[in-house]
């Protein structure tokens, strides 16, 4: 049997190796590491021109952000401490997958939560639960992290290869308006996408003056293992969420969360649910911890654009803890990239009152990306996240 103890060193080694590969690989002059890289505000990587130089504008261009992080807002801190960490932690307990909300302090922290659906076996079908949170009038959809006692989980977690977007994910992104690279705009969504559109226009269709959202979707890629794991259980999760929407027409939002592998699947859940929900556009919020990179830079940019388009009512953030190596998987050298909105916890023993920072842009060099590979700690993957350990040891199921 493959255990979490035996697989963690392998994952740690892969994380270190991928980061070393990223930092030591040279790129030919004029060749970009990714097609789609927006960072702080108007700081986006310029599209390469045919001569290999970069286009100029009043904005500065960069692949990564080096802006100073700012203290986390009280609202986000409360959300993470009272919802994200508690649901993510409870997903490692056994009682929710027996139809019971009795897992000790994690469940007690959300006493009125009504568990309505659960599924998965931890192997081929990754575990999840869905329910109704009366106090916030939200539908909750939470994913468990990887259970490496199931051999079937290993290919999901260790697959470096890419896959095209699943139709349900592509559908959500198709709602983003097509953008014309030759037409300046003050729209925040336009600012996010312009660099990618120009890059795609010059690389894939040089004669075109614009590139549609469909072109972006066609060149977006996600981790094949993550999407394979997600596709096994998403239909059932979606059905459970839709049942709660029907039961609670007064619902104010859908809250999607997960940790580790579960965080990666939750990103896909959130995007797909945004495209699946019919009728009124109910807010979808994705709040994850210990998330590895999910897709290439085009995918990361589409997630950012979905969040910046106010009409879509989509929000996303990810929490990185101290020296957790998992947030550095998979390698940027082959195009993987995080979306924006990192929240970094720089303290090893992070408590509810510890430092917490919001990091602008992508791959912010003053946040988790500042951690040297030789100081990665596997123990940091479980937290504590503002006082909560997200692991089975926090469970006291009754």
How would you describe this protein?
With about 400 residues, the protein is an alpha/beta fold. It has a single domain, classed as Alpha/Beta hydrolase fold, catalytic domain (Rossmann fold), CATH 3.40.50.1820. About 35% of the residues lie in helices and about 15% in strands. The chain contains 10 helices and 13 strands. α5 packs across α9 and α8 packs across α9. The chain is globular.
Relevant terms:
398 residues, alpha/beta, Rossmann fold, nine-stranded mixed beta sheet, two-stranded antiparallel sheet, 10 helices, disordered N terminus, AB_hydrolase_fold, AB_hydrolase_lip/est, hydrolase, Fungal_lipase-type
Strand content: 5-15%
Q: Tell me, what's the shape?
A: globular
Named CATH topology: Rossmann fold
CATH class: Alpha Beta
- Estimate the mean pLDDT confidence: 78
Q: How many strands appear in the DSSP assignment?
A: 13
Query: How are strands sequenced across the largest beta sheet?
Result: 1-13-12-10-8-7-4-3-2
User: What is the CA–CA distance across the termini?
Assistant: 27 Å
What is the level-2 CATH architecture name? 3-Layer(aba) Sandwich
Count of discrete structural domains:
1
Secondary-structure element order, N to C: HEHHEEEHEHHHEHEHEEHEEEE
CATH superfamily: Alpha/Beta hydrolase fold, catalytic domain
CA radius of gyration: 20 Å
Which residues sit in consecutive blocks of at least 5 with pLDDT less than 50? 1-63, 179-192, 194-209
Q: Count of helices? A: 10
What class do helices, strands and sheet pairing give? alpha/beta
Biggest sheet, in brief?
9 strands, mixed
């Amino acid at each position: 049997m493959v255990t979490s103890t035996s697989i963690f060193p392998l994952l740690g080694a892969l994380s270190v190796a991928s980061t070393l590969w990223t930092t030591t690989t040279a790129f030919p002059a004029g060749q970009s590491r990714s097609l789609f890289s927006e960072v702080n505000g108007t700081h986006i990587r310029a599209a390469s021109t045919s001569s290999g130089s970069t286009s100029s504008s009043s904005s500065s261009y960069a692949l990564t952000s080096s802006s100073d992080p700012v203290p986390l807002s009280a609202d986000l801190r409360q959300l993470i401490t009272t919802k994200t960490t508690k649901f993510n932690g409870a997903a490692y307990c056994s009682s929710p997958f027996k139809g019971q909300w009795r897992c000790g302090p994690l469940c007690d922290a959300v006493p009125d939560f009504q568990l309505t659906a659960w599924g998965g076996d931890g192997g081929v079908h990754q575990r999840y639960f869905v329910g109704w949170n009366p106090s916030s009038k939200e539908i909750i959809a939470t994913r468990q992290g990887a259970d490496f006692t199931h051999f079937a989980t290993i290919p999901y977690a260790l697959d470096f290869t890419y896959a095209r977007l699943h139709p349900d994910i592509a559908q959500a992104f198709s709602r983003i308006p097509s953008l014309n690279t030759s037409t300046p705009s003050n729209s925040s969504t336009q600012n996010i996408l312009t660099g990618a559109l120009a890059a795609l226009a010059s690389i894939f269709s040089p004669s075109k003056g614009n590139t549609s959202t469909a072109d972006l979707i066609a060149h977006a890629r996600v981790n094949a293992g993550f999407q394979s794991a997600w596709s096994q259980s998403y239909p059932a999760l979606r059905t459970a969420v839709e049942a709660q929407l029907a039961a609670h027409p007064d619902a104010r939002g859908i809250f999607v969360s997960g940790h580790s592998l579960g965080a990666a699947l939750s990103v896909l859940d959130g995007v797909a649910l945004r495209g699946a929900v019919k009728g009124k556009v109910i807010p979808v919020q994705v709040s994850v911890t210990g998330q590895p990179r999910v897709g290439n830079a085009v995918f990361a940019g589409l997630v950012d654009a979905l969040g910046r388009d106010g009409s879509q009512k989509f929000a996303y953030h990810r929490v990185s803890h101290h020296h957790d190596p998992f947030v550095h998987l998979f390698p940027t050298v082959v195009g993987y990239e995080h979306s924006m909105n990192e929240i970094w916890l720089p303290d090893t023993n992070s408590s509810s009152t510890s430092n917490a920072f919001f990091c602008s842009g992508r791959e912010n060099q003053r946040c988790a990306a500042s951690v040297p590979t030789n100081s990665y700690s596997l123990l940091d993957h479980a937290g504590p996240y503002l006082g909560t350990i997200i692991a089975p040891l926090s469970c006291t199921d009754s």
